[in-house]
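Table S2 (continued). Query chain:
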Amino acid sequence: MILITRPIETAKKLQSQFNEAGIQSFIESLTSIKISDRKINLQNCIYLITSQYAVKYLQNENNLSNQIEFITIGQATSNKLKKLGAKKIIYTAENSDQLLKYFKKNKIKKKITYLCGSNKNKLFIQNLKKLHRSVLIRQVYEVVSLKTLSKKLITKLKKKKINTFFIFSLNNAKLFLKLCK
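Corresponding output:
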């Protein structure tokens, strides 16, 4: 049996894929996402979007006009933005390293507003600020960590029912180990 630790929304999709393949799985979401209800005034800048949860935040915005520019990480993030009506996605990187290379090569004059979560990549932000003089960080969602593992999961672990762990980030791996103590 595979343990899936992703937030519930994406965990259910993954579980469905495992079920189709005849693979048993168990969901224990180690984190949940709380989207901010604070409004931002969309300005004449470039919005950096690296997460589907930042896109979810933008769902509350009524006006993603043709003038608003975006740079994204990940094709799925870019596609979700397009579904919301974003027209000017000027670049989509595969990962943060590729994005930093893009900024190094392309001298962007406009201010960059990075819409991110509470678990932002500090090294990425530090490197981005070295390459671009005007970067504004706006936290638009919070990653809320689980406090304890469920009794059901603890029982499965003790009975050695789970033989594979699907942990999607370094932060989740650290959290899982901490919760197992």
